[in-house]
Amino acid sequence: MEGYIGDLGNELSRAGLGSDPGIMQSNGGIIAADVARDRPVRTLLSGPAAGVQGATAIAKRCGFEDVITMDMGGTSCDVSLVEDAEPVVSTDVEVGPYPVGMPMIDVHTVGSGGGSIA
Q: What is the pLDDT of residue 66?
């Protein structure tokens, strides 16, 4: 993460962006790049969390507060619950056999994605 985020910051600076990038967290929030470098555990499963946040925003605009989200990518199909216009967050999360113990949007993989099936 140190190298990846450092390279990202350098490239954005070279492109003329005057601020540090925000990095998605597993709980659906955004943290500063230096925090992500120091505490990369906060970014575990942040990609699926971003999908849930996007689906939540669209559901709100459509007038729905309680939805089931589904994010099918190339390797997985992830689902999550949104209740009262907020994604369900859990601290009882494992990545493989390892307990994480950090607040994360509760995302469950229910199957293979389109690329895996093909």
A: 98
Query: Cα(15)–Cα(27) distance, rounded to whole angstroms?
Result: 29
- Expressed in percent and rounded to 5, the helix, strand and coil fractions of the chain are 35, 30, 35
Which SS3 state, helix, strand or coil, does residue 92 take?
coil
Q: What is the dihedral of CA 97, 28, 55, 86, to 10 degrees?
A: 100
pTM of the entire predicted model: 0.84
Does residue 59 contact residue 85 with C-beta atoms inside 8 Å? yes
Rounded CA-CA distance 5/84 in Å is 34
Pick from 112, 116, 7, 107: which is nearest to 49 by CA? 107
What average pLDDT does the segment 26-38 reach?
94
Q: What is the DSSP string of 39-90?
A: -GGGGTTHHHHHHHHHHHHHHHHTT-SSEEEEEE-SS-EEEEEEETTEE-EE
Rounded CA separation 90/71 (Å): 19
